[in-house]
Amino acid sequence: MHVNSNFNIKIADSLGLSGGRKRIFVKFTIDKKGGLIDVGARAAHPALETEAIRVVKSLPQFIPGKHKEELVKVPYSLPIVFQIADKPKKSKN
User: CATH number, domain at 39?
Assistant: First the structure.
């Protein structure tokens, strides 16, 4: 919900990307204190990667992971998928 409401979809429109489904793959680690570290993204355009990283870094503090009562780092992957509408073709009339 956080990513959906905070991701600036207008960036994709301004980049002139063709219509269709676009995917951004975000990876990060939740550290032993519940913070985010090692945030990275892969997308069709660097501006989309930057926006995805910005939104993920704005997530609220997490509850740290535990394994056998010991706090541990937890790797996490978050796919962001959105649809860009096809732009109508201009007629030559």
Answer: 3.30.2420
